[in-house]
Amino acid sequence: MALSAVSSASAPDNPSVSREATPRPVLFDNHDRPLEYLRLAVTDRCNLRCFYCMPEEGIKYLPKQELLTYEEMLRLTGLLAGLGVRKVRLTGGEPFVRRDLVPFMARLSELPGIEELSLTTNGVLTAPHVPELARLGVRTVNLSLDTLDRARFAAITRRDELPRVLDTLYALLEAGIRVKINAVVMDGQNIEDLLPLAELTRELPVEVRFIEEMPFNGGSHEATPATLPWNHHRIREHLALNLGELLPVPSHPGDTASHYTVAGHQGRLGIIAAYSRTFCGTCNRLRLTAEGGLKTCLYDQGVLDLRAMLRTGASDDDLIAALSHAFRHRAANGFEAESQRPLHQLNFESMSTIGG
User: Fold this and answer.
1) Across residues 262-277, what is the average pLDDT?
2) Cβ atoms within 10 Å of 54's Cβ, excluding its own
């Protein structure tokens, strides 16, 4: 099946944003994978300098006029919702660095067809906005947190902001918003932090997800998926050895994490094979960068310049035709997408420009 609409989708059991329950079209790529989840980067700017994401001096940020406006984002998201996208996650950079983010989220939540609205944040600026997020119906927030040790946090992020991030964590939980903690596992950097982070699930209803390190931004490692020092197999073995048996939780199509529970723990653990790319077969994600580039895979170089189309007068029909063509030519997996890049170079691209 190349590209088709099937009227068989219905609203999820626990949508973050209440939406219509009538059947909606489902968009499929050329590998029969549904495309229903948009990761929307609202900025390339960030207030941290995590060494695995960008260099200490930061990156050369895009001039403001080269970023998509909120109006342009709303137009593109509305078109994608009409094609079958039902879930939107706001990313960056750090989303809260961009002004008027919450009013923009409110407008996104009103788009017909958008059933779930969530975001990924580093938590530094987030706590004051938590009540507004709760009022919008946001039920899930991904919080980037690689360590609970203040000195290591400062070393990894090059900023001493751990107390503010923890304030956000507890504010989200108090507001009843589900929290997924994302921790990148880095050999020689935060291995001693894996167990303290995992132990958060003992007393708190959080999901702690450990992510394989990826080779973006200067190549923090030269490993292949087979030689990565801390791949998903080793992460699981380490956790099981120290916490006891990890009980698998059934996964759903589109899940990037393998989920586990531990006896006596309120929360659960997740392991994301981001560099091994074991989940590509059911990937349902699209990425829209802050400058308007469409990425149908995290590892591709970008397959469509939507900003250029918007600003040269493209009609909705023009945009839909271009999107449909991109979806019909989507890479089968991250390895194929990477192989199509010039020189297969990943390590000159900052994660803050991709949208995570």
Assistant:
1) 96
2) 22
